[in-house]
């Protein structure tokens, strides 16, 4: 019963999300013996104004 | 002080969210003795492109 | 495909968690038409030292 | 390696998010010795229809 | 700046977590062009009493 | 109604958590006009074996 939440700054294409989901699900099956049908993955694409590193928003000048 | 996060694939109507919030808050009061005013609930409606099960995005053909 | 995360301050008995899980899953089926088998719920029991309200840890004197 | 997620009901201006990010990152450096470059902060602005307190959505009449 | 949270029911060995972290970080670099050093991954190992599927705790009889 | 989740690698003393909670709650009041009593903060202290950066667990040799 894995549940995986993936947050990225910026956006991903549908194709990128499809590939990431397939690979991460495969990783959890091969390494941790989790049946693929058990794995839920959610993506969150976070705009630069909503993500800070080192105290600065990512869309800062 | 419960904090509940509910993620669903797809969307919910305002009416559905209102009913779910009322019922979950009531459940936590009856079963776990949490005063209703202490319970925060947030909803996240996740589009099919951002939720994968078994390695496939939910909006896959 | 609902995923629900329930954080409570303090602990719950196994019986309380079983009842809450059953009721919340039922709520999502009745109100939002989510098949019961699709619903994942995780509980997190947070000790008072790790939960603050109004700027004070819950185990404060 | 702190990761901080800040959910607020309603919205914040870019300026408010910039100030909050700077202050929280500074707090973690001063109090917990976390180098600023290690701290990731994400903001989520949750509309009233998606946040309930005491069993009522925040945009309720 | 990806941040990935992986929750699994039950526990993982340190070796399993090391391999999963390496693979997921590699996936995000290859597919989404995220530099490896930007990726944070946290694991949460959730005991069966704290995870429910279909309304039943995973450690149910 | 802010809800803040703070994950750190390693542990914090109770005193550190108390100070961080007080400061972050104050920040949200001053900058975003959130009454202190509305702010919930939870801390999660994540051991090195459960946090990876750049594909390596933090307790790696």
TrEMBL record, chains A, B, C, D, E, F:
Q: Which GO terms describe its molecular function?
A: isomerase activity
Keyword Isomerase included in the entry's annotation: yes
Q: Where is the 4-oxalocrotonate tautomerase-like domain?
A: 2-58
In its keyword annotation, does this UniProt entry include Isomerase? yes
Q: Which UniProt keywords apply?
A: Isomerase
Entry-linked InterPro entries: 4-OT-like_dom, Tautomerase/MIF_sf
Family statement drawn from the similarity comment of this UniProt entry: Belongs to the 4-oxalocrotonate tautomerase family.
Q: What is this protein called?
A: 4-oxalocrotonate tautomerase
